[in-house]
Amino acid sequence: MEALPGKKLVGKVTFIDPVVDAKTRTVRVRVEVKNDGSLRPGMFAEAAVQGSKHTGKHHHVPLVIPATAPLFTGQRSVVYVEVDNSEGLSYEARTVTLGPKAGHVYPVVSGLKDGERVVVHGAFALDADLQLRGGHSMMTLEDDATRRKARPLSDVPAAVMRPLAGVVKAYLDGHDGLQADSLARATRAAKALDAAIDNVSGAMPERLSWAWKPSAKTLHGLARRFAASKDLASARSYLPGLTAELKLVLQRFGNPLREQINLAFCPMALGEGRGAQWLQRGTKLRNPYLGSKMHACGEIRAHVAPGGHLKSKPAAPKPTTGGGHHH
């Protein structure tokens, strides 16, 4: 202790304030120690917090996984768990709840049991392959209810909207490459998207970081995998995830471009009965999943005017027969 040089005290953390002080970016922690009468209000001390490493009735070693294992889509965390069944080894997607990152690991709050084996490297590639095979992929799943009900933010500064326009433009350029069956154009746009995300992060004020950081992390991971794609099928497998996250951005921050953005849907995109959405310039359908094979397959579901926000609840699907859907 600074007030009592050389004196060391051992105590127990009994309370951590769940609210972060907006000005100091700190939290209050209560530590209970035995006071022999030498401690006075207002004294300063340095403290080191040590977690329990022994097992016992009230203590346990926390279950942790490497930071490279989980995939993030906003507030949802997914890992791939090894499953041994009658068909041999396979992998299943598992939603997990993680604690704050600690160095190179994440503590697992729920979703995994001790002894289960998770994919540490290559989870993104595994997820993309699963999607191509028509399996259960994190990229095509809706996120939790809180994120689906995202509300428009107010007072977003122009300093944020300008670089955000770069993110949206790069996505649309990637769409243009895919609908034209051009892998080179699409992956070039994906690289531009990856760089544009950092520009937004650098301009984002602290008060809005909660709304951007989860999306930035997800967009980064998908954009980098997209950019590294070796064929059109792989590149197209990342578009559903990118679209879902960019929809959330347009719901919260609005359309930063000077042109209308259109949300389209095609039930044939990922196989009959599944379907997928995408964002595009113009109202003439340009299907990025089917490309030149079937450019006009799909329908426009929503329009986002310049400066406007995408509605959280898109229009209900129209029948795929008659005039609502085009082949």
Brief digest:
The protein has 327 residues and is of the alpha+beta class. It has helices at 123-132, 145-148, 158-179, 183-203, 209-227, 232-237, 239-252, and strands at residues 12-16, 29-32, 64-66, 71-73, 76-85, 88-98, 105-110, 261-266, 276-281, 299-304.
Question: What would you note in describing this structure?
Answer:
The protein has 327 residues and is an alpha+beta fold. The chain has three domains: 1-50, no CATH class; 64-140, conserved putative lor/sdh protein from methanococcus maripaludis s2 fold; 152-324, no CATH class. The chain is 29% helix and 18% strand. It has seven helices and ten strands. The chain has helices at residues 123-132, 145-148, 158-179, 183-203, 209-227, 232-237, 239-252, and strands at 12-16, 29-32, 64-66, 71-73, 76-85, 88-98, 105-110, 261-266, 276-281, 299-304. The protein is globular and about 80 Å long. Residues 142-148 and 316-324 have low confidence and may be disordered.
Which characteristics define this entry?
7 helices; alpha+beta; 3 domains; conserved putative lor/sdh protein from methanococcus maripaludis s2 fold; 327 residues
